[in-house]
Amino acid sequence: MLFAESPGDGPSEDSDLKDAYLIPRNIMAEPDYVEDDNPELIRPQKLVNPVKTSRNHQDLHRELLMNQKRGLAPQNKPELQKVMEKRKRDQVIKQKEEEAQKKKSDLEIELLKRQQKLEQHELEKQKLQEEQENTPEFVKVKGNLRRTGQEVAQAQES
């Protein structure tokens, strides 16, 4: 019965009957197998999830819980998340570099300019040395002969 019955329900007590039918005992109906102890009935059981019962899944789940408690993120992040984090890091680094350049004094700026000039000069020297090393031997000998000839001519004039 869905509604609670009051003790002493009788046909003579109309007010008790009205109150008894207005108070619901349960909103949901109880299944038949709970009341009956019939051994022939097969009682429903929760299905076993093979994934959750596997040893690998349990170990992985335990490890993830421990990492979460420690505050460690999983090692394998999605590729999109990795790219977005890298972009954010690069952007922060660029902002810091720009702020550092804005804060540089006049002396630091002049020193940087001189350093760049020196580096360019060294690069030019290296290029000249490479060109001289790559020239054939007869061109080098010819250049040496000209220089010695010019030095001899200058020595005779003076």
Automatic annotation (TrEMBL):
Residues 67-105, 123-158 are annotated as: Disordered. Residues 79-105 have a biased composition (Basic and acidic residues). Keywords: Coiled coil. This is Family with sequence similarity 107 member B. The gene is FAM107B.
